[in-house]
Amino acid sequence: MATIKDVAKMANVSTATVSRIINNKPGANIETEKRVRDAINLLNYEPNNIARSLSNKTSNLIALIIPNLNNPYFSDLVNIIETATNKHGYKLYLCNSNDNEDNIAYFLKSIIDNYIQTVIINSLAITEKDIKYLEKHDINVITIDRTNVDNQPNTISVDHFRGSYIATEHLIKNCECENILFMSGEITEKSSASRFKGYQSAMQEYLLSHQVQLLEGNFTYKSGFDLAYNTLNQKNDVHGIVCANDAMAIGAISACHKLGIEIPNQIQIIGYDNCDLSQYSTPSLTTINQLDSKIGEIIMNSIKENKTIQFEYTPEIVIRDSTKA
Questions:
Q1: pTM of the predicted structure, to 2 decimals
Q2: Which residues fall within 8 angstroms of residue 69, CB to CB, at 6 or more apart?
Q3: Exposed/middle/buried for 263, CB within 10 Å: 0-12, 13-18, 19+?
Q4: What is the pLDDT of residues 215-253, one digit of tens each?
Q5: Rounded Cα gap, residues 73 and 287, in angstroms
Q6: Residue 142 and residue 64 in contact, taking contact as beta carbons nearer than 8 Å
Q7: Are 250 and 284 in contact (CB under 8 A)?
Q8: Which uninterrupted H or E stretch holds 145?
Q9: Is the dihedral of CA 212, 217, 223, 227 positive or negative?
Q10: What pLDDT, in 10s, does the model give residues 207-217?
Q11: 30 or 198: whose pLDDT is higher?
C-alpha cells in the first residue's frame, strides 16, 4: 500500500507539499499540483482520514447516538441514515450508548477528539448539559424524536398521538374490536405517553362504553411476550392489542401462539414502527409506519446547506395479516 512518502518521492516534492495539495490548501503551483495528483493516481494512494482530520481539525464523520441495537427500529434507523451519509461522501460514527451515562461521556469526548462536526441524537440519556457541551465545541446537533430535550433548533419528530390514534381507530372501525388493550413502553417516556393518549382518545371517541387498559413494559420482545401471556392466560375477552412498538407486538404474537390463540380470528394485534422484521412475523404484522426513509436525505441536505430542520412526520398504517381488515 502506497504511503505519502511514496507520493512525495514520485512527484519530487516534500510530504508537506503533498499534504497541502490533498487538503486543498494554497501554496503549490499548477505544475506541482499536477505532478502530485498524477502520482496519487498512479500509486492508488488513499489519504489517511484520521491524519487529515488532525491536520484540518475536521472530518467526514457524522455521529449517531442511539440507545441500543436490540430494538429493530434502531437498526433500521441506522441503515437509513448510513445510506444517506455514504451517498453524500460521509461516514457514520455509530455510538451505541445503552442510555448509560459513562458510555455517553466516552462518546461525547470521542466525538470532539475526532473533530466530528455533526451529531444526530436519538437517546433519552442525552441531557441539556450534554448538548450545550457539544455546541460549545461548535458541533451541530440534530435530535430525532426519542429525546427529553425540548426546543432544539434542529429536530425531526413523529406525531405519536396521531399514530396510536389511527391504530386504535382501525381496530374499532374496521376490525370491530371493542375490548382493546394498550401495550406500552415505559409510560414516563414522552413518546410512550403520547401514544397512550392517542389510544385513549380513539377509545373515548368511538366507543360509548369503553375501558382503558394499560400494560406497561419496556419496548422489548420479552416484555411484549410476558405481558401478553400473563394477561391473555387469565382473560379470554380481549379483542385487540395496540402495541407501542413492533418488538412488543411480535412478542405478543409469540405469546398468542403459545397459548393457542388464533390471530386474527380470536385476537387482533397492531404494532408501531414498521421495522423490516414486521413483515416477516407469523402472521405478518399490521403496524404504524414511523420510519420515513426521507429523513436521511433531509438530514444530509440540512448539513450540506447549513439549514435548520423542523420536520414532523405523520405516521400511516400498514395493513397486514395480524388484523382482519
A1: 0.81
A2: 75, 78, 96
A3: buried
A4: 999 999 999 999 999 999 998 899 999 999 999 999 999
A5: 12
A6: no
A7: no
A8: none
A9: negative
A10: 987 788 999 99
A11: 198
